[in-house]
Amino acid sequence: MAALLVGAIIWGLLWYPYRLLEQAQIHGAIATAITYVIALLIGLAIFRNHLRKSRIFDGQTHLLFWIGVFAGWANLAYVLGVIHGEIMRVLLLFYLAPLWTILFARLLLNEQLSPHGYLVIALSLIGAMVMLWQPKGGFSLPSSYGDWMGLSAGFMFALSNVLSRKDQYHDIQLKSVAVWVGVALIASGYSLLLRDLPVFDDISPNTYLLLAGVGLIVFFLSLVMQYGLTHVPANQAIVIMLFELVAAAIAAHFLTDEAMTIREWIGGVMIISASLFSARMNRG
């Protein structure tokens, strides 16, 4: 639990250096690719003894592959969401993840749904509808790029978490490497779609240091998160991760001029309540 708590706090603050990199003319997808490549290189150097074929290709390799794919999109979408959207709104949409966790835990882990689970579903959906309600047009789909990124990040995050819990065949190091590879590849692929690539000769030494620092943080964060997700039930893990909202709210208050509407706060409280209830939604 302590590992997830530390990870949640760091995640709640990590949006700020990515915004700084965006202001330094390094697109979020490119910054994500670079920082995760840095994390990957550190991991390969430190965990080279864990990267044996017999450990990777043990009959459950597909789990590593899908953990990398889903974590890859979740992390990239998270970064793009918090860069281009309103921090708290994106994070609250991201924290519809308990709703997705219920479905995936039932399908992939055979975790039985209790009456609390139905309450989670109801609160999550109503909270999202309140946040997305437009006074003139009624309920609408997410209205911005940041909203869609936050929503899709939560969906993929939940799926990746459940698969990490399911994968008891591979150690934390291998699952972390899978995440780094997945994020680096997906972010790099997304970067190829960009029209304006940065000219790295124009980037200041401080920006390079920031990239290296974020890469080091990502390395540490991935290990901490994979340790927590491997040892804590999926539905309980997502509740502990709510501390990310606290850290993000405090940081956003001091570092940005963004403000949420009353409607968004009400919807957000409902989504947070759903996450808290999700800790009790498994029988036995």
Automatic annotation (TrEMBL):
Its main location: membrane. GO terms for cellular component: plasma membrane. Residues 3-132, 145-277 form the EamA domain. It comes from the Bacteria. The keyword Translocase does not apply. InterPro entries: Diverse_Substrate_Transporter, EamA_dom, EmrE-like. It is a multi-pass membrane protein. It is found in: Cell membrane. The chain crosses the membrane at residues 29-51, 63-84, 90-109, 116-133, 145-164, 176-194, 206-225, 237-256, 262-279. Keywords: Cell membrane, Membrane, Transmembrane, Transmembrane helix. The keyword Zinc does not apply. This is EamA domain-containing membrane protein RarD. It comes from Nitrosovibrio tenuis.
